[in-house]
Design goal:
Chain lengths: 113, 115
Amino acid sequence: DAGVIQSPRHEVTEMGQEVTLRCKPISGHDYLFWYRQTMMRGLELLIYFNNNVPIDDSGMPEDRFSAKMPNASFSTLKIQPSEPRDSAVYFCASSFEFNYGYTFGSGTRLTVV
Amino acid sequence: AQSVTQLGSHVSVSEGALVLLRCNYSSSVPPYLFWYVQYPNQGLQLLLKYTTGATLVKGINGFEAEFKKSETSFHLTKPSAHMSDAAEYFCAVNKGGGANSKLTFGKGITLSVRP
C-alpha cells in the first residue's frame, strides 16, 4: 500500500488566493482526518470524516476553510481566501478503526505571502 | 474532556543512555493511548499503542511504554538511545469509537541525542 498520499507537498500562494489541498487515504480506512501543525499551536484537528460523512468540524478555524470527501478515496481541504496566518503544515491521516491508530500523510507545507 | 500533558518541550540524552519521555493523560473513561514519532519534514508515524490487555506495550525501534492507571501515565522509554532517535515525539489519547474517535495530541517533545 502506498500509504496516505497528499498533494501538493509544498504550496506557495499569495494572500487572497484560493488553495486546495488533496488527500488520498489508505484503501479500506473508514476514518479520515485533517490536521494543521504550527510551531505556536502544535497539532490541531480541523475536521474528520467517517465513511465520507463529516463527523466533527469544530476545529475548522473560519468559514474560509471547507473540506469535502466526495468518495472513499479522495478528500480536499480548501481555503478561500487564504491569509498569511494560514501558513502551516497540513496533514491528512486515515484509520481503519478508532483504536488502530492513524496513518499520516507526509503533509502539505503551505506558505501564504 | 480528555487531555494529554507532555512536560517539557525538549529532552537531550547521550547516545547509549536511557530515553524517558513522560506523558500523563486525563480521561473520564478507560483511554486508548498512543505514541507517535515525527522526523523532520515528515508525517507522524505510530510507535506503539495501548488499547486493552497487557499494560507494557512494545513498539518499533526498541521503544516501549507502560500504562499505569493509578498514575494516569503512559511514559515512553528506550534503554539505549541511538542518534537516529532524534525526532519529535507525541503522546495521544482517545476514548473510543463513533464521535469519540478523534485523537487528542500532546504538544510534543523534541528528543536530541548527543554523540
